[in-house]
Amino acid sequence: MKKRKIILDCDPGHDDAIAILLAGNHPDIELLGITIESGNQTLAKTGFNALNIVQYLGLNVPVCLGSPEPLIKEVEVCPAIHGESGLDGFDFDPLIRDFDSRHAVTFIIDTILNSIQPVTVVTTGPMTNLALALKLEPKIKLKIDEIVLMGGSYTNGNVTPAAEFNILCDPEAAHIVFTSGCIVKLFGLDVTRKVLVLPEIITRMEKINNSASLFFTKLMKVFNENQKKVFGFEGGPLHDPVTLAYLIDPKIVSMLKVHCDIDLSRGTSYGRTNCDIFDYLKLPKNIEIAVSIDVKKYWDIIEEGIKRYT
Ligand code: BDR
Ligand code: CA
Fold this sequence. Notes:
Layout (H helix, E strand, L loop, with lengths): L3 E7 L3 H11 L4 E8 L6 H15 L5 E3 L13 H4 L21 H11 L4 E5 L4 H9 L7 E7 L14 H5 L1 H8 L5 E4 L1 H4 L3 E2 L1 H8 L4 H21 L4 E2 L3 H8 L4 E6 L1 E3 L10 E3 L11 E7 L1 H13 L3
Parallel strand pairs: 1-2, 1-4, 2-3, 4-5, 5-6, 6-12
Antiparallel strand pairs: 7-8, 9-12, 10-11
Helix pairs in contact: 1-2, 1-10, 1-11, 4-5, 5-7, 9-10
């Protein structure tokens, strides 16, 4: 079987870190590069975190810095969940790895255009880099296999009643992606809030006792403390790796094709992924949204991913 070629655009971030862990060494996935933007923290911090993650996990992939701010609105970061560093809870060795010199947007465009095989773009942060790439070089649309993203929900938000963090960080970018004509698959809070890092999950992963399990458990303990403080959850929702779990085993979710608009009105629903799941409007269905997830299989995939490290 041909490996699926992916670019991972992210803002690490505790759950982004686990998405990188999964993407980094799966036999069916070739991680072409990691592109970074502001989101969970400023670009300087999310970039630094990404380098630390790849260095610690021993991943030989380019890491490219991208947009320091959303297209139109002001930067919004999330220290309440991810801490001041954006990745509180793990002590990395001094950093030796450096960034690839290419800008994330240039990297996305060139990598996709130069690839013989179509490329899957996975985003687990605001979609500023991808939106810029789509606008700068629309020809990439022909070579994008699909866009697989964590963001939004067809029910409620997690920053406002209506909006999820990644989409609310850059709603205009999300709008560009959703109306691009590419295949867009959305893994939102409706499913990611089903996969909670409960204490028994931490114990299970801790037992693997390798470098990746140490990474997972240390980070998840802090993530959980913060999720408890902010949302009252006993286990934090491990949002971002759902995208990778889907690529590894598409059967773990069920998807629904819907018409979806991003609310750009700047009112109280700004950033909402307005999904017409009952097809009231009879408009063209521009995205697929995940509506259910096999929680047991998800944790099996995470466990197998951790076990592949030494
Ligand atoms: C999303 O927001 C970020 O804080 C997480 O990394 C995830 O991508 C969840 O709403
Ligand atoms: Ca993220």
